[in-house]
Amino acid sequence: MQLRYSFRLYPEPGQERALARAFGCARVVFNDAVRARRDAHESGSPYPSAALLSKVLVTGAKKRPERSWLGQVSAVVLQQSLKDVESAYRNFFASLKGERKGPKVAAPRFKSRKDARQSIRFTANARWSLTPGGRLNLPKIGPVKVTWSRTLPTTPSSVTVIKDSAGRYFASFVIETDPHTDAAAMPDTERSIGIDLGLASFAVLSDGTKISSPRFLRRAEKKLKKAQRELSRKQKGSKNRAKARLKVARAHAKVADARHEFHHQLSTQLICENQAIAVEDLAVNGLARTRLAKSVHDAGWSSFVNMLQYKAALYGRTFVKIDRFEPTSQTCSTCGHRDGPKPLNVREWTCSACDTVHDRDINAASNVKTAAGLAVSACRAPVRPGLVPARRAETGSQGIPTGHRATKRHSTR
């Protein structure tokens, strides 16, 4: 499995200008390629191939006076920008044909220098390297200071330099993991749990453990409102407005980083302690359109479940997602009697069949575990047909698959 290891970069002023130049050149080549594809579609002509686009938009453009500045950046950056266009159109057409899972993907749009996220990618043939002093040496940019939070397990295949909306720089390395190394240090366990996600408590486990919700957005709401109010009073286009916008972006980035770190620590702990984990397939998109929208977004359930899923696959654990229509909050986990729906303000209820008093969340977590086939009876026989135990592996690394947008960012925190 491929993972991303991200680290904070601290470029010098001259390197920041070189990076801005590289971001701009990559953006121009991307937009030229999108425009060429659109023009071909409107005229009914065949789409230009990747080789033709490279010849015209990169090699040929450098010889023209109006595009000669493309030669000031690494050619690999420009070639990777063309590959991004090809990948975007490939995903778009696969989405139209129904061959791609998930929501529909729109056609590629033109990039803007005002976009919140700017990035460039260097592959191995770009001859980037790590200096003996621990700096990241990038072609035509120079050695950039890196804050290393851990060592890279293997040689990366590529590195992506990212600038986010808060003005921070990150280096994201693509690493190919070794499953044998992961399996060597994974602690042995036979435990299995069901997890009920909520708002009052972020997660309730089937063993009765309750993990309180940190509510990072709610706690920072006063500071965010003040920063946003100051931004709204600044004149558009002024330098003071740009400073105020950066202040708002940094405040939001701090909240997002804290939430991301909480998800990583909790998911790694659960994967380390349990061989099998079951969660409910929540309709987050629907819940995010209700009066609880802000709290749902603040919890970040989807991000947490995605971390559990990929870490289980990486470290040889069993991950089960049960159907969202399973009546986990209506069924007695002791006798199996279905007692009917209950409003959200009912946190405890008594089963009408066996008179057992249930905590709503713990009962739901137990039912999630049972519905996934992970629960066992007193004679150790599975309540439902069990899953084949997966191999054990290690949970020491918190890398993220390259296909995921949310990358773990390591800073000086």
Radius of gyration equals 25 Å
Biggest pleated-sheet summary: 9 strands, mixed
Report the average pLDDT across residues. Answer: 87
- Broad structural category: alpha+beta
- What percent strand? 15-25%
Give the SSE layout.
Elements (H helix, E strand, L loop, with lengths): L1 E9 L2 H31 L6 H11 L14 H22 L21 E6 L5 E2 L5 E3 L3 E6 L10 E6 L5 E8 L2 H7 L6 E6 L3 E5 L4 E3 L3 H4 L1 H12 L6 H35 L2 E5 L3 H4 L5 H7 L1 H15 L2 E5 L25 E3 L6 E3 H12 L28 E2 L7 E2 L3
Parallel strand pairs: 1-16, 8-11, 11-12
Antiparallel strand pairs: 1-5, 1-7, 1-15, 2-6, 3-4, 4-5, 6-7, 8-9, 9-10, 13-14
Can you walk me through this structure?
- By secondary structure, the chain is α+β, with helices and mostly antiparallel strands.
- Helix content is 39%, strand content 18%.
- The protein is built from 11 helices and 16 strands.
- Strands 1, 2, 3, 4, 5, 6, 7, 15 and 16 form a 9-stranded mixed sheet that branches. Strands 10-9-8-11-12 form a 5-stranded mixed sheet, sandwiched between helices. It has a two-stranded antiparallel ribbon with strand order 13-14.
- Strand 4 (136-138) and strand 5 (142-147) form a beta hairpin.
- The longest helix has 35 residues, at 239-273.
- The two termini are 27 Å apart.
- Mean pLDDT is 87; it is low at 376-413.
